[in-house]
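Reminder: ligand-aware prediction takes two inputs, not one.
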Amino acid sequence: TQLEQALRNAIISDVIDVHFQPIVALSNNQVVGFEALARWNDPDLGFVSPGVFVPLAEERGFIDALSEALLRKAAEAALSWPRELFLSFNLSSAQLMDPGTSSSILSILGRVGFDPHRLELEITETAVMGSADTANRIIADLRQAGVRISLDDFGTGQSSLGRLRDFMFDKIKIDRAFVSRINSDRASEHIIKAILTMCEGLDLEVVAEGIEDYLEAVKLRSLGCGMGQGYHFGKPADSIATLRFLHENY
Ligand code: G
Ligand code: G
Ligand code: MN
Ligand code: NA
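Here is what comes back for the chain with sodium ion:
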């Protein structure tokens, strides 16, 4: 297809960019890290969402090449940040089925000179289900090297609390479906409270995603949620704008 051909060309010519969205400590609104988000603006097709091209890359076997280029760019950009903030990077489900993923990631970090302790990998519940043994092995190898693992979109998909019992994760990212209703829907507030209590007991860090206004931030902070992310704190921005943002915020 046209999209597939364009994606192939974009990967070969290395034009897919990475943007960064701040993650803040809710106690003081200080930036603690950034999530890397792939951005592709094709001259003919216009802006194509990663929600479209990442699954296509997985299906066509391009995901390794794409993800390696994105991680390299993200880590290189993060090396120029004025403080040692963490970098959070999304891993796709196909990567969690490929036993070569951990060594590939660690070798990129080595080449770029990026400390694995500053990297967090976001994975979804569904992705871990896919090929559980391989995924467990990859996660264990990466954590052994100091990389941290966060469970993305928590509360959606085929949630399985049982996965949390295996202590494979360092952090939970509460899906924005709950966050966006926290001040209008009692049920969402109760669910978030329960997640926070559970995470405290399991010694898991928590990020609330999709915070869009001040009242949501205040509410989450009062409930004891440690970190937040969303348009209220900053939209994803390219590496130059991110550097400017960091210099303006310190
Ligand atoms: O940025 P946006 O909301 O359009 O992202 C849509 C989806 O694409 C999200 O689920 C996000 O996690 C995913 N995504 C964005 N960048 C990457 C990436 O570099 N790798 C992978 N695997 N997924 C990404
Ligand atoms: O699946 P994942 O959680 O990785 O998706 C992250 C996506 O959510 C990013 O692509 C980003 O564009 C989007 N996003 C980030 N903050 C907000 C927000 O405050 N509101 C909405 N609607 N989307 C957001
Ligand atoms: Mn994510
Ligand atoms: Na997320």
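The radius of gyration is 18 Å. The chain has eleven helices and nine strands. We will return to this case in the review session.
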